[in-house]
Amino acid sequence: MSVLLLPILLPVLFGIVLLICPEKWFAKKDTGRKKLCILAATALVLTGLLVVRTLFLKDVGEYYILFYLTRKLPVQFHLDGIGKIFATVISVVWLLAGIFSFEYTKHEHKEKRYYGFYLILYGVLNGLCFAGNLVTFYLFYELMTLVSMPLVLHEQTREALIAGLKYLFYSFAGAYMVLFGLFCLSRFCLSNTLTFGAGGILDPTLVEGHETLLLVTAFLMILGFGVKAGMFPMHAWLTAAHPIAPAPASAVLSGVIVKAGVLGVIRVVYYLFGTQFLRGTWVQYTWLTLALLTVLMGSMMAYLEKGFKKRLAYSTVSQVSYILFGLALMEPAGFTGAVLHSVFHAIIKCALFLTAGAVIYKTGKKNVDDYRGIGKEMPITIWSFTFISLALIGIPPASGFISKWYLAAGALESGIRGFAYAGPVILLISALLTAGYLLPITVRGFLPGADFDYTKLEKKEPSALMTVPLVILAVLAVLLGMFPNGLAQMISRIAAAVM
Amino acid sequence: MNPIFLLVVILIPLLGGVLIPFLPFRSRKQFEIYTEVVVIMASALVFLLMLKRPSDPFTLIYFTGDLTISFRMDGLSMVFGGMIAFLWPFATLYAYEYMRHEHNPVGPRHERSFFCFYTMTYGITLGIALAANMLTMYCFYEMLTLITVPLIMYTMSREAILATRKYMYYSLGGAGFAFIGLIFMIVYGNINFQYGGTLNPDLIGNRKNLLLLIYVMAFFGFGVKAAVCPLNSWLPQAGVAPTPVTALLHAVAVVKSGAFAILRLTYFCFGITFLRGTWAQYLVMTAAMITIVYGCSRAVKETHFKRRLAYSTISNLSYILFGATIMTPLGLTAALAHMLFHGIMKITSFFCAGAVICQTGRTYVTQLDGLGKKMPRVFGIFALSSFALMGVPGLCGFISKWYLASAAFESNQVLACFGVGALLISAILTAIYMLTIVIRAFFPKQGFDESSLEGIHDPGLYMLIPLFVFSAVIIYFGIHSVSLLDFLTKVGNGLI
Amino acid sequence: MNFICNFPCFSIVLCIFGGIISSALKGRAAKYLNAFILAVVAVMSACVLGYTLQTGESFTYVMGRFPAPWGNEIRAGVLEGGMALFFSLIMILSLFAGREKLNEEVDPEKMNLYFIMINLLLSSLLALVYTNDLFTAYVFVEINTISACGLIMIRQTGRTIEAATRYMIMSLLGSGMLLMGICMLYDMTGHLLMENIHANVQILAESGQYHIPLMVTIGMICVGLAIKSALFPFHTWLPDAYGYSTVSSAAILSSLVSKGYIFLLLKIIYRVVGFDVIYGSRVTDILFVFGLAGMIMGSLSAIKENDIRRMIAFSSVAQIGYIYMGFGLGTQVAVVASVFHILSHAATKSLLFISASGLVDASGGSKKFIDLTGSGYRNKIAGVAFSVGALSMVGLPLFSGFISKLLFAQAAVRNSGKMLPTLIVLAISTILNAIYFMKTVIRIYTPVESEYPVIPVKRHKVFGLAMVCFIALNVFLGLCSDLVIRLIETGLSMFA
User: Fold this and answer.
1) What's the CA gap between A377 and A359, in Å, rounded?
2) ipTM above 0.90?
3) Of B142, B156, B180, the CB nearest to C396
4) pLDDT tens for residues A265-293?
5) Which residues of B touch A158 (CB under 8 A)?
6) Residue A430 forms part of a structural domain
7) Which end of chain A has fewer CB within 10 Å, C or N?
């Protein structure tokens, strides 16, 4: 039990201590900052180690109950494959983005608050991964929104406040749609505590006659979690909130927090309702349509958008819908592709935003058109960026290719009318668009053209604290593509268990 | 325990309060101690009575026929009476500090008379809780209206007088219609409260529709105090009263008396077997649902701090009424749970608002920028109460909402399912109107002038202690509510 | 025949002689004589009441040596004795309370005239209560009219003369119709004694002979008395008359004069025409409708008023509407309610008028509301008394008004046809009453800086004492109503 609770409590405690500590302890310019960073780093590393340890534990069959909210609603924790994978990815991204932010926040203010909430959010996300039933998941989901809001609002400019409120509104609307499901479902399930069970926990005898209600509930829950995952039509908050947060925060928002929504969808579809109930229904078709629509729309908007961070935000919208598409197929290959892409995209998007952060930190330029010749100014940064873009586009042997392969295979295998072919086609179009919005930056960065004033170039490489995480992430992105088997097998086993 | 204590517990605050203007207090301290002692004595006696319940009712006066004024402690009385007894001592403590700063237009004796009426209100609310039959409840209900009038009118400003008048007209008018319900119970049944209703089936005959009409009239009559649409415009206007009044009376005592009366009317007079499935039930359930959404929508648009919280109260009261109109034992349990939890959450919010007004004099939400840094405890607790009102799991608000939704789904009625939708819409609106205040306080806009906050600090202990205690209760019941909810379930099923 | 049986006759004769002697006395002596007579009358009525309760039946007293059906008769039972006692009590209290004001309002030379009128008024009231003969009733109705007119006019200003004239005209109209009705009744039945008429009317009703003339007669009598007792729409004389006369006069006029006529109407319904015939004739439906209309219109007009005494006078119109509504309902229970309301209204209305005059005195003699602000603090006892009266009018439990409302509502519920309009109008009327009475109560307790003199209780002890007695009477009727209602029921059973 403590194995599960420690990764949750440790960062939360550290974070709370940081928030409560009076400002004076960290007031001194450099030593104060150093103290802060060391404290945060300790927390991150310790927790990361704890999480990685769980990877090596066998799936524990038991469910640990912490306390009962009401007679029927325990707060329950459980360790299973999906949880382990997501927790590990979260830890990796969190640690690296954390190290990056030690340098980045030099030109921010109110760092103590930032790190405090950063750590608490880490603990909450771990809780989300280890949640054993819907109530626990929902509890941590709401906490996640509440705790991530200060990160969005950090700059406290007018746009930041509006973006924060938008984030709040959309997130809670989504959460309450899920709540409807929470209220409605317990009567129809085998276990009335809504504990997650592989393959679903609906009781067929109880379900008889209430199918419409349950389908509507399922749809609402998918939409509700889809808000966090930026599925059309509830994506508007994402493109407002992600660009406006400080770059490391955007990295984790785009990389990890949207995956919380994905995890929610996985739990709902595969561990609560079960694919048997949902396959072939209007719920699945609508979901597939929405996902494909988002993929296309996101890529197109990213292509047209000139602001760097906003372009990356639209890219997130599009990429996460790849994952949702894969999940909607309800096929083993699709599922594998989706989870693989969750892992890869987390790493990739985190790196992309960190790059954006580094570029803006060093040059102050936010528009893509201003980035001519930047490759010469920050070579390591832009080279990492290039490899990561290749991974995202899906060029072998980088990781993106593997996940997209599985997705396409899953689509064709599913044999669903129309979508079986439309899926891969749209994925292909989107890949082209992705190339279109990522590669020009690299190209113009290294080869700015004949009419460029080369004398204006200066060396602006950021410090090691920033470049090392970037490089690590780029390497991971490529390596995982070259040696995906361990991960893919693990996921396939999970897929087999739930379908 | 001897039933006469049922009368004694009502008389202690009544007499104690009446004596206040006449006793010669030599200092403010003496006067504060006296009042607090009276209130604590009454509360202690209430808890004692809850532990050792007298089995018989106590009759005070015999009117004509078999109409009597009698008192009794049953399950519902324990819940309502217990809540009032717990909250009143803290509220009195809070009021001491608040009234010190409040503008007193008449003179020092005016403040004494304030506390006189404040304490007497306690006695009368206990009377409503302990009423054994509808006539007693009705009598104390009318008296409650009267005894709270001087409290609302305290500042004697033009606004206050207009608000008082409106309050009086609405309340007395509503009581007039509730009176009709009382009459019918006298004729068609028994006015003594009994779980499951006391209507005599032989007498009803083919007059069912008439009785349903009377029920609806009585519902709206009592519903005036419970601020059901469209009779709720008195409540936001009454926000002009001093905060201890608004907090305790209009978030806890007065409005919950209205809801309590409706619970008695539905479950203990007319009875749910008679009412369930009829057009009357649909009508009142729709009214409750409309109020839920209406209250929240108005709250979002409102910029005056206390009025915003008043609209929030209107909406939350209809949660309780929604639970009542589901008309199942689980519905009653849910309604009672929300009555308790909302009382604590809302009084916390109002006390925080009062602390802000007291310390800074700022009454509008737009003026609260950046105050979170200067009054961290107050705004921290306000944030906690906001989360609780929104229904974040881990705090008590989630528990009562869970029970309400469970009751709605269990009842198998389509309208109730829509009611759950209304609850959720209301939840998102609650998030908006509460969290925007919290965000403003802790994350003011860039370029905000910090010097305008000079000299502002957290209020004194008298105000902070109640806030801390209430926060602890909110968290405690969020995590460990099982024993309390078991008790409420028993009450809901009529076993206590 | 017991000595006590002479008492009714003695009381009437004593009053008449008192009036005659007063014409020769000076003001002060007349006052003391009047007080003495009142005391004696009260004692005698109490004895009659006690005696009839003991024997359990009413007795008939033959005037002179002429037996029925040629001679004159007096009949006394529990109801008559109780009424007489009550009327004399109210008169004593009203005169006490208004004693000091009287010296200011009436010229010293005219003082004995005033007491002549009072004595004549009392005698006519007693006669109306006790008489068993229609013609005697008519004679004393006229005496009543004249003395009432005299009371109004005793204070000679332009307004009172106009009011008195208006009163005279309307009253004579009513008397005229009454006279015509009596003549026609005499024509048809050949008798003037009530029991004899009754027997003949029964025969007529059964045989169907003279059906239309009988109906017309009943109609004329009822309308005639209705005009005299200010039933809507014949009430226009009332506000002027009550509004501008002296304080004691207003109290006595509003409480007692119209009640005498109503009591006569009651007698005619029960003893002359018979319960069934009257209700078969549908005249009572008309009375019912006018009663309902009066309840609403009276209150609406009161809301518009700017002068406190006229407001209270319009309130009387509404209250008389209640009584007629009770008659119109057509059941025994309703009549009991109406009789109780006669008592309750008499007690409350005089209380209101006298306390209003106290408040007016504390505001420099002005009757306008704007000047009355805060007068509750300047004349404390009048303020409290007015509040009690107002609360009783609104129908708050503990006071007599609540019991009246309760009785009326219960009576209405048992009558299926007229139930819903009655209950709804009762509720609306409560709201309307609340509006104007509560507004006034709030106003008199709104503190304001003013130069008006403060009237301490110590200097006006008699006034204070009278107020306390009135309040006690009201509360007695409110709390011990059971006793009173039982007396009324016993009285009604031996009335016919």
Assistant:
1) 10
2) no
3) B142
4) 999 888 888 888 888 888 888 999 999 99
5) 445-446
6) yes
7) N
